Amino acid sequence: MKNSIRIITACALLSGSAAIFGQQIQLAPAHNVVQLSASGSVEVQQDLLSIFLSTTRDGTDAGVVQNQLKSAIDAALTEARKVAQAGQLDVRTGNFSLSPRYGRDGKPLGWQGSAELVLEGRDFARISAAAGRIGSLTLSGVSFSLSREQRARVEGEAQGLAIERFKARALDIARSFGFAGYSLREVNVGANDQGYTPRPRMLAMEARASVADAPVPVEAGKTSVVVTVSGSVQLQ
């Protein structure tokens, strides 16, 4: 029994020593560690177009307003599906809302609602032509972005550039301080793109002024995909 107690006591002392030793290792300050970052940027044409079509309705009866919105969306869907093609022109519904409308005295005056349809894809001509043929909705916004395939390809190029610049900068810093090289401690990689999106209000005004059944004028711009590599290195 005494031997058992001694063994347990010894294990407890060893565990306590290991915990204290681990804390000392974690708290030990790092020497010759440098924080740095580098970026890689690739400019590319935006290849994904999204056109937003919407309508609003107002009335005293919620059911009537809802049915009007539904009819407008159904008509738009019927027209858009005629030319839909996966990846080239995808059709989906957007926001659909119905809410009471109040007067200045706080009393309910009626109901107002809105509905939205989104045309999206890589075939700009097909999308703009379909948007021009939909008469039950009004153009409310246009945006350009990168498709998943385009983004993956460009991010790979930008990431390669960022990594090479990170390595070159780390080696240059190490040599500047009189070290032969370095080893990686921690690395983080992040990506984003910066592009131009037309103002929806101006586009909506152009759409109302255009001739019926005419394609909506669109023109994509370019965006720069930027990948940033940041982290710390140990100078050696």
Structural overview:
By secondary structure, the chain is an alpha+beta fold. The protein folds into two domains: about 30-45 and about 145-195 and about 225-235; about 50-145, Alpha-Beta Plaits. It has five helices and seven strands, in the order αββαββαβαβαβ. A four-stranded antiparallel β-sheet has the order 3-4-2-5. The protein is elongated and about 80 Å long. The two termini are about 55 Å apart. The model is unreliable at about 1-5, about 5-15 and about 195-210 (pLDDT under 50).
Features:
2 domains, Alpha-Beta Plaits, 4-stranded antiparallel sheet, alpha+beta, disordered N terminus, 236 residues
Task: List strands and helices in order, with pairings.
Layout: H1 2-27, E1 33-45, E2 48-59, H2 62-81, E3 90-102, E4 108-121, H3 124-133, E5 138-145, H4 148-176, E6 182-194, H5 200-209, E7 222-235
Antiparallel strand pairs: 1-7, 2-4, 2-5, 3-4, 6-7
Could you give a short description of this structure?
The protein is an alpha+beta fold. 40% of the residues lie in helices and 37% in strands.
Report the radius of gyration as a whole number of Å.
30 Å
Strand order of the largest sheet: 3-4-2-5
Distance between the termini: 54 Å
User: In DSSP terms, counting alpha (H) and pi (I) runs of 4 or more, how many helices?
Assistant: 5
